[in-house]
Input
Amino acid sequence: MVRHPRPEGDEREMWRSLRRLWKYLGALFGAKVEEKADPKIQLEQAIEEAKERHQALSQQAVTVLGNQRELELKLSRTLEEVERLQGSARAALAKADDARGRGDEAEATGYEDAAQAFAMKLVAEERAAHDQRALHEQALTAADGARKAVETNAMNLQKQLAERSKLLSQLDSAKMQERMNEALAQMDELSPKGDVPSIADVREKIEARYARALGEADLRSDSVGAKMLEVEKAQLDAEAVVRLEALRASMRSEAMGSGSSEIEVGEPERPETGG
Output
């Protein structure tokens, strides 16, 4: 049985599809995490990261400044050595001249050899000083750049801290506004929320009961029994009016009778006499 090799193009396409799927799943997961993340925690994370970057930059600046100081110390020692070697070479030449003046050529030659040795060391130290000056200039430039970088980053960090305070205040205001919106939305809802009816539902029930009560009252007011009660009430009202008039008449009669009695029992009239 002959086996045919799998086409390479299909395999590459499969791997590309898998990579696209993996990137999509990663982006989807990141979007979900970003959606559920607490802005306050994210803000604190950003500030902490900015502080860590500033700390790392400060440590690098310390290293650069330390290197500059170290080169300054080395250059200072080299320059001191150059001055010492120059003085030693001059002293050796002076002794050689003095010995030659006394006619002691051997001693003069020895001092000249010593001056030569001092001169060789002097040349080496001067070269070292030249190289150290160049390095020191570079270190000065780097140190100046490091200082400016730290100062600039410190200003940016202060701005970020101020921005954090502002954003935290805005976040608190946003949360309060969201809670207020939720409360207003619950008040405006017409459908019941859970087991608690809304005000609109209660109002609808009350209005329906009130309307039914009014309708029932209208219906009963038009019935025969209601008319009979109305007639009986009218008769009672008429009888009550007649009874009240009788009571008033009786009271008036009694009042007039008591007035006549007082006249009868009063002082007798005196007979008239002639003049």
User: Anything to note?
Assistant: The two ends are 185 Å apart (CA to CA). The chain has two domains: 37-188, 199-252.
